[in-house]
Amino acid sequence: MIIDSHQHFVRLAKHPEVEGFRQAQLSAKNPDVLPSISDADVKKSLEQVVSLMDARNIDVAFASPRAKAMATHEGTPEQNAIWADLNNGLILRACQLNPGRFAPVGMLGQHPSCPSEQVAKQIERWTKEGFVAFNFDPDGTGGRWQNQPFTGKHNYPVFEAAQALDVPLVLHGSESINKNFPHTAVQYLVADITGFVQLMMAKDLFRDFPRLRFLIPHGGGALPCQIGRWRAIAKYNSWASPDEILGNGNVFVDTCVYNDLNMQMLFDAVPLDNMLFGSECDGAFPGVVNEQTGDHYDNTRRYVDDSKLSAGDKSRVFAANARRVYPRASRWLKS
Ligand SMILES: [Zn+2]
Is-contact 213 168, C-beta < 8 A? Predict the structure, then answer.
């Protein structure tokens, strides 16, 4: 089995009625009624993704709402809770309409002024509905990075819920209003790097929540290149080392890296048990072809296949690790 642990239903999020609802919210119209999207429209929005999964022999994807659409810096706590519920409802329906192909990963109605107890309640509600993990924006200020580090006690209700319910949190950036940080090229990777380093800096976090798990997407940001620097600074500042937070089973990374060299560096830097196959199928940059391979840049399956890993190790990366790190996914997988 091959599980893509990192996918977003971007076309579904771009449905005009869905985007129109958010625009109405943000212009303070606050529509009373949620948009009604037909099953046919939900299925149609996924046709291209499913055919690409078939072409790449990806059996199942853990799918979440569009990351940019979280836009946790906009709206109000009330609006963002409704917005997250709308998106989660669509994700759930899309998973149910394609049995055996997807498992739902949720959006959280974060906002700089939102009490984290409210976010924790959303985790509880949607986990009961079958969600297997949740995206968590470590910035929350649209690329301005004005909040306290996300690992602080202000987020403890979120961490308590995630640990108690055994659902990992995926540290995923969202929209950037900072023109220096385009969201897919920079802000998401800054979120990965910042998230990883904040976890090294948070002395008490994993003492208080020893079973809490975070997934850092996009190969852990700069992890393949900079793990040596982070080992040094951890010693220098008495932080937890990258090897410690990986080795203790608290932090995992995915394989959303778009070339052979850096995929190999990722396998060299990160223990195999901490690596989950991810391909963002159909990609942050759909259809863009890498002339060296003649294939899409974002077909990360190719780079894992071409790596020096043994067949047994590949099967751990392709599925076994994802099943272990996302235990609630089992109900969505065909036996
Ligand atoms: Zn993503």
Answer: yes
Task: Give the Cα-Cα-Cα angle 25, 21, 184 (nearest 5 degrees).
Answer: 90
Summarised one tens digit per residue, pLDDT across range 158-167 is: 999 999 999 9
For residue 22, how far is its CA from the centre of ligand 1 (angstroms)? Answer: 20
CB contact set of 73 (below 8 Å; sequence gap of 6+): 111, 112, 139, 140, 141, 142, 144, 174, 175, 177
Residue 290 φ/ψ, nearest 5 degrees: -85, 115
pLDDT at 148: 95
- At 330, is the pLDDT very low, low, confident or very high (cuts 50, 70, 90)? very high
Q: Cα of 2 to ligand 1 centre, how many Å?
A: 18
Cis peptide before 282 (omega within 30 of 0): yes
Q: What is the mean pLDDT of residues 175-184?
A: 93
Residue 126 to residue 137: CA distance in whole angstroms: 17
Q: Which of 47, 117, 280, 291 is catalytic?
A: 280
pTM over 0.90: yes
Protein residues placing their CB within 5 Å of the ion ligand 1:
67
Residue 244 annotated among the catalytic residues of the structure: no
Q: Give the Cα separation of 48 and 287 in Å (integer).
A: 11
Cα 7 to ligand 1 centre (Å): 6
